Amino acid sequence: FDVHNSFISTEKNQSNRMSFPGRAVQRTWHLVDATSQTVGRLATTVAPILKGKHKPTYRPDGDVGDFVVIINAEKVHFSGKKWSDKLYRWHTGYPGGLKERPAKDMLERKPESILKKAILGMLHRNNLRNSHIEPRLRIYAGPDHPHAAQLPEGVKPLPVHPRKRMGNFHFGLGERYSETPYHPGSAKEREDKA
Fold it and tell me: Residue 125: in which H helix or E strand, if any?
């Protein structure tokens, strides 16, 4: 048994992944106004922010995401006839305990749960989601929230998700984080040609 060769072989097998200690993770608070936004489009904007995919320190197995505060959850929008056709189902655990409720009734009773189910449904079902990511999502039915210390009065909400994937819009953080000035076929370029 050669100690020197075994040391070299273990050194070669080590991964070159960057690792950041917990205190090096910087968490930001984002404000999202859900007024007249489509539920699925809003969820695709919020889910990557909760996971931290917009950061260079992102790791799939790491807790590096940010806090997201969503206001006006009672004013969300569904496309088509989803208000009457979409059903939310759950089971009480008792025999014959399957319950279902249309989206319109769910909006009247618990407007926060519509967005919460949509956003958490886009995340992997693991311990990271249940114990770390889910508590960072704060949803409120009205315009008021108790996080004035983290989100002062003048904070602007994240931009609305665009209807089409064109231009230089960064899905997750908006146009202000995009580096290229204009992409061919963007709305600004079309306005300039007209």
Answer: none
pLDDT digits (tens, 9 = 90+) for 35-79: 989 999 999 999 999 999 988 888 888 889 999 999 999 999 998
Q: How many CB atoms lie within 10 A of CB 79?
A: 10
Residue 180: phi and psi, rounded to 5, are -75, 135
Q: Please state, in angstroms and as integers, the Cα–Cα distance from residue 122 to each residue in 51, 53, 81, 176, following that order.
A: 10, 13, 22, 25
Q: Which amino acid is at 11?
A: E
DSSP string, 3-20: HHHHHHHHHHHS------
Instruction: Report how far residue 80's alpha carbon sits from residue 23's, in angstroms, rounded to the nearest whole number.
Output: 46
Q: How many CB atoms lie within 10 A of CB 147?
A: 15
| pTM for the model | 0.74
Interior angle at CA 162, CA 160 and CA 163, nearest 5: 130
